[in-house]
């Protein structure tokens, strides 16, 4: 197992531009297959500290569009990995995209509970600056405490995340 060092950085204004570059490439490849391409995760929230990796959810109408979506993404260098144990979120990896910021790419049908969670959490943080400050601290502390243990880092953040989900009824 490869251990990756966990790095959490202060918010960077360039993350929005990094997302837009990736979004443009995806839009060109997917056309009408994508209902929307959403910037989710911590890099999508103004002021939030984050691991400098852009999280992206490509929204498709339903699973009937998945086969064509996989094919279109494969043509531009993405490899389909399945749902990796999270129903409603299909994962893709890539090699050779040095012109783009490191990113995680997922495809979700429009009715996916996982997509709804990503959007609801992002939108909550975008409108609650106190939560952004608190979550930033938690993420920074977690990265210091568990710099080489992603599972423990995630565990450390989980109570905060679950609290937000509870507050917004997810």
UniProtKB/TrEMBL annotation:
<dbReference type="InterPro" id="IPR007344">
    <property type="entry name" value="GrpB/CoaE"/>
</dbReference>
<dbReference type="Pfam" id="PF04229">
    <property type="entry name" value="GrpB"/>
</dbReference>
<protein>
    <submittedName>
        <fullName>GrpB family protein</fullName>
    </submittedName>
</protein>
<dbReference type="InterPro" id="IPR043519">
    <property type="entry name" value="NT_sf"/>
</dbReference>
């Amino acid at each position: 197992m490869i251990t990756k060092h966990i790095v959490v950085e202060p918010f960077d204004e360039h993350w929005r531009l990094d997302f837009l570059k990736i979004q443009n490439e995806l839009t060109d490849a997917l056309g009408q297959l994508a209902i929307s391409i959403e910037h989710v995760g911590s890099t999508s929230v103004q002021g939030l500290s984050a691991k400098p990796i852009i999280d992206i959810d490509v929204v498709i109408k339903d699973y009937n569009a998945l086969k064509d979506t996989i094919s279109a993404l494969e043509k531009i260098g993405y490899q389909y990995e399945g749902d990796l144990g999270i129903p409603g979120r299909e994962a893709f990896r890539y090699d050779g995209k040095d012109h783009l910021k490191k990113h995680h790419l997922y495809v979700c049908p429009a009715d996916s509970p996982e997509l709804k969670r990503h959007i609801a959490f992002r939108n909550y943080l975008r409108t609650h600056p106190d939560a952004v400050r608190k979550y930033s601290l938690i993420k920074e502390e977690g990265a210091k405490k568990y710099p080489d243990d992603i599972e423990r880092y995630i565990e450390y953040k989980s109570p905060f995340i679950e609290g937000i989900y509870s507050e917004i009824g997810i």
